[in-house]
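Lecture notes, unit on protein representations.

Consider one protein chain, 226 amino acids long.
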Amino acid sequence: MKKLLLLTLLALCGATFARAEPDRADLISRVETCEAILREFQQNRDLAIPPHVWQRAKGLLIVNQFKAGIILGVQDGWGVMMVRKPDGRWSLPVIINAGEASIGLQLGAKAQETVYIITDEATPRKLFANRVRIGVDAQAVAGPKAAEKERTNEEIFKAPLLAYTRKSVGLYAGATIKAGHISRNDEANFLLYNTRYTLPELLYSDWVQPPPEVQPLMQFVQSLTK
């Protein structure tokens, strides 16, 4: 928990209403934060994604969002997305943006961490067009958790996104979730991977070798889907 809080603070440090341009160290911190989020979810009995869900996973989205402001509340954030290749290997994690604006009195700040299991191959490709609205362009429902004893309803797996969020503890599997939007961030990935390849090439090709900084996340995800 201490490591996750430290990584999140480092990754969010200096964030303002106008998005600051991150350097490569900031982007590495984002990847490390997403790894820490996933590890903490898997260690929490109330949040852990069960093995039979991982076996169905076609992709993975880890999102870290925050809301801050006094007059205008802006829910902003970022995350990483990965896809599972036909041979079972997982792709590089690509940086994405995530957020949603809301008008009204907002005091203080709060964070929301969410892990989405992608159950189809079409949803990641929707980001080729830049933006996907979760719950609109891609239906999202609360996913079954490891602590749940009942048999998983197969209807749940018809949703392209199974959501696991700290806010949904106690929310029954299959409940509909609407959670803003995600969009591609090619500029961040150019910097992180020192390449001009964009999101489609990074996810679906083997043209870029994973740098050491992203390998721990890749290896952890791979271990969950063996």
